[in-house]
Structure formats: C-alpha cells, structure tokens
Amino acid sequence: MVNRDRHNIAVDILEKSKTGKKKTELMRDAKLSYLQTKQYLGNLLEKGLLEMDERHRFKTTVKGLQFLEKCASCLLIGWNTQEKIKKKGKTK
User: Fold this and answer.
1) String of b and e for 52-80 (b: at least 16 CB within 10 Å)?
2) What is residue 10's predicted lDDT score, i.e. its pLDDT?
3) Where do the DSSP E strands lie in the chain?
4) Is 14:64 a contact under the CB 8 Å cutoff?
5) Domains in the chain: how many in total?
6) Is 92 part of any domain?
7) What angle do CA 22, 43, 55 make, to 5 degrees?
C-alpha cells in the first residue's frame, strides 16, 4: 500500500463525501482509523470544505468542490505516485 500524505487523504475524503456519507462509511471508504477520521473531519469542517447535515451525514461544500477542481488542475497531483511506479518498474 502506498503511503498517503495529508493532502491526498483530505482530497479522498472530499471526493467520497460528494454524495453525503456517515462517519463510519467514510472511515471504511477512505481506509482511516477512527482517530484519523475524527481529526480529518474536524479540520475539513473547520475550513468550510465539508458540512454535516441534520441526519449527521458529511457532504462536500461548494468551497470543497472548488478546492477539488483546483487540485485536479494542478500538474503536480499524482507526480509522486508516478515517480514511485517508474522507479519500481526499473528495479525489476
């Protein structure tokens, strides 16, 4: 499994929350522990990238969707992963 940085985890949570998810669903889908999920959700809520509705479902906000669009247009996203794949292919 590839180690993920904070940015990648936050993007993963925002992507998976577009349709609205419960905390346990996000834990499972993003492959995070309870403590990690609690910390990331708290930070994303505080930054206004995520919101919780009356049914306690987390949903990506308009600001969060704009953040995801900007991340998708960044040329460096995925660069680190692509470099690891290239190096792995050379060692075989």
Assistant:
1) eeeeebbebbeebeebbeebeeeeeeeee
2) 93
3) 50-52, 58-60
4) yes
5) 1
6) no
7) 25
Note whether residue 1 is domain-resident.
no
CB count within 10 Å of CB 45 equals 14
Q: For residue 47, give its domain range.
A: 6-87
Which domain CATH number covers 74? Answer: 1.10.10.10
**d(C-alpha 83, C-alpha 16), whole Å:** 25
The answer to whether residue 20 sits within a structural domain is yes
What is the tens place of the pLDDT at every residue in 43-55?
999 999 999 999 9
Q: For the whole model, what pTM was predicted?
A: 0.77
Distance CA 32, CA 23 (A): 11
